[in-house]
Automatic annotation (TrEMBL):
This is PRC-barrel domain protein. SUPFAM superfamilies: PRC-barrel domain. GO terms for cellular component: plasma membrane light-harvesting complex. GO terms for biological process: photosynthesis, light reaction. The lineage of its organism: Bacteria, Bacillati, Cyanobacteriota, Cyanophyceae, Oscillatoriophycideae. Residues 124-150 are annotated as: Disordered. Pfam families: PRC (PF05239). It comes from the Bacteria.
């Protein structure tokens, strides 16, 4: 599925955020500012998928993707919180560059890093949505022996569904109420065109 920068997908995006510019928010891990939000990637159905984050304070100038489900948004302080994000994950995430198209392989490389973080926090024997904890990649520093063009659970770019990684992509009323509302308005506009 194609992904688009929010600014390219809908130039008047601020209208859908009640004229609040979420793309100017700072990125925090705990109480520490670690970067900023550069953009928001949207799929062709209008679903928000990733924050494009600039981790310039942590790792000078590295831009990476943060799945929207891993973020908590503070509209009052103009912050996006990624409390489970670690510096090690950022180091292991594939870098995003302005001239690239985010394809299945890039997304799978991103998912691999975030899945690894979940495995480390999941007790042995408790599944994490991919056939159990043992099927997730072992550590963020391990180079996968799996061809990323075929997913970790036998899916590929044609059969992958974001529902396989709900905890990465689902928006909740608790952490994303305004984002959900903005996404729904955007999707309705898209459908009406």
């Amino acid at each position: 599925m194609a992904l688009y920068k929010l600014r390219d997908f809908i130039p008047d995006y601020q209208e859908y955020f009640d004229h609040d510019d979420i793309l100017k928010y700072d990125l925090y891990v705990g109480n520490d500012k670690v970067g900023s939000i550069d953009d928001l990637l949207v799929d062709d159905k209008g679903q928000f998928r990733y924050f494009l984050i600039n981790t310039g304070i942590w790792l000078f100038g590295k831009k990476v993707l943060l799945p929207v489900g891993l973020a908590r948004i503070d509209y009052i302080e103009h912050r996006v919180h990624a409390d489970t994000l670690s510096k090690e994950q950022v180091e292991n995430l594939p870098e995003y560059s302005e001239d690239m198209t985010v394809d299945f392989e890039h997304e799978e490389g991103v998912r691999k890093v975030y899945r690894s973080g979940r495995r480390e926090k999941t007790p042995a024997g408790l599944g994490v949505g991919y056939g159990g904890a043992d099927s997730a990649p072992s550590t963020p520093n391990t180079t996968p022996s799996v061809d990323l063009s075929a997913g970790y659970d036998g899916y590929d770019k044609d059969s992958y569904d974001y529902n396989l990684d709900r905890d990465l992509y689902d928006l909740s009323e608790q952490n994303h109420a305004k984002l959900l509302s903005s996404q729904e308005r955007l999707r309705l506009r898209r459908q009406n065109r």
